[in-house]
Amino acid sequence: MSGATEILRWFSSVQYPNQNSIAEEIKSRLTSGSACYHSVQNLLSSKLLSKNLKIKIYRTIILPVVLYGCETWSLISREERKLRVFKNMVLRRIFGPRMDEVTGEWNRLHNEELNDLYSSPNIVRVIKSRRM
After folding, report:
1. How many structural domains comprise the chain?
2. What is the dihedral of CA 107, 111, 116, 117, to 10 degrees?
3. 121 CB-near residues (< 8 Å, 6+ apart)
4. Which of 21, 58, 59, 112 could bridge 17 with an S-S bond, Cβ 3.0-4.6 Å?
5. Residue 119 — φ and ψ, nearest 5°?
6. Helix, strand, coil content of the chain in percent (nearest 5)
7. DSSP 3-state of 32
8. 78 within domain boundaries
9. pLDDT (tens digit, 9 = 90+) per residue, 37-75?
10. Which string of b and e fits 2-12 if b means at least 16 CB within 10 Å?
């Protein structure tokens, strides 16, 4: 077969995505990202590593797995929320709980506090900036 015939065969097999297939793709990416997260979970909760190193682990190992193919996604608010929840879950593991200075209790970080500590752009903005 010639190269042109193989290209035409490949183009004929391309399926144009609808919203359901994009939702399934995002779900699959989040599942893969979650598996990746669980494989490095001990590193992210370690007291021996600095927060900067943990953020680098997140950016170089976990985030590329989740964002693979994101250039073709058209996001609706439900998928945007799922992506933000995943990002916040990982960041909570990295930054850990905070002790309340008044009561002395350990509290989980709120989303605004996570966004302040993690100075990089929102995951949804990253996806929108990568679109073709």
Report:
1. 1
2. 50
3. 129
4. 21
5. -80, 0
6. 70, 5, 30
7. helix
8. yes
9. 999 999 998 999 999 999 999 999 999 999 998 988 888
10. eeeeeeeeeee
